[in-house]
Specification:
With 442 residues, the protein is mainly β. Helix content is 10%, strand content 40%. The mean pLDDT is 91.
Length: 442
Amino acid sequence: MSITSVQSNAMPAGGPTATQPVPPSLTPGEIAALVEQMTPVVARFRQASSPMKVALDSQSLNLGGQQGIRIASVGLGIRTITHWSVVLNLVNGAGGAQVVNLSNVFPYNLIANSRVQINGGATVFSAGGLGTFAVMTRNRQSTWKLDGTSGFGPALNKSLVKTTVGANLTPTNVGQAGNFSGIASLSIAANSTGVLTVDFYTIEKLALDRESLLGALPLQNNSTYATLTRQIVSNAIGAGPNNHSFPLFTAGAVPGTLTHNLTATISSTYDFWSVPSDPGLYQEMVFNSYQVQEQTNLTVSATGPGALVYNIPQNQYLVAAHIWGFDSAGNLLPADVGGLSFLKLQYNAGGVIPVQHFADRERAAQFIDYADDRQAVGGYRLWDGEDTTEDLTDADQAGWIDTYAAATPQLVADVASGLGTPITYSLTRESVVAGAVQVVGG
């Protein structure tokens, strides 16, 4: 092989002995301007602002209850952190013990809905307990890891779910497969009231992430306010034999001698950043809206290839989609190929298919990425448009779906044969809507 050319440094103008020009010294002001130009806006925002927290008033709800609370009108809202303390009274009027089973996803399916609305109108966050849990843990590693800290069987970490078995109840630990609470069932003593207390936590995200702060709610003004409304399920006990769509269920029909009531005490902390004097530091954060929207009670009447078709709303950037599914008897859809065996994202009438998820392969890949098994309890499938880097906490919009440009965007899934139909599912979307916020300041 012959070398035809060698690249070298160019000869200075005037020859090798010529004096090279030296740029004039920069003034301190010019250096400061250069540093500012090279510093990302979000970094300059953080230098001019401070993260703060304020407690909101507590709420108390019973079965079927719904109540709203106004979020403090201060700062740029990032999230609320919520503690749910639920006391569940299980009344057994029979002369013998009564057994109730706990859903694999108890206690999060006690929450019917959490909703954040702006000025009583536009909704930026709306999801039930399962959707909220999925959203808050999406880019958090190891949060789905089931361990022994609950004091019962394998369960979510005690920092997320703490269950206390009170008087007249005898628990049965869940098997090695685990569930969110660690308890498989409770036996209520004859002619008595069993008291079950569960403390658990949710985070309602108001911005895409705490790195970019994209979508932060501009609440420090006289024109915009936000309300946070909670709703508890109207009935916590369903008929079995395996009805995980209810928080609790019996082996067969719910006997007339079994009744229940609950009291949920809800306490939240509002996280926000103070508003810098320079609006240019946060305008892009607040002009673009981060939204969490859940659609519930969607149904699939058949099994087979492409049986599940979900039409994705347009005019948004789709960040992630969370699916929770149950068969006709209330069983959580099986993991891997036994449930939604194949999931694809397509648009342009199916002409473009950028995402194909085989359930078993994706389960393995997500275990590597998230350091936990997100199909461990069944029923859940995740498409994460930000799962494109090795660091899940480093937001990366490379995988977002631009539905402004894509025609007829859809999520399509193969449904395994043998599942009882109709299948009922909910789908929670995380999305960014460009230029959706009109009122800032004032």
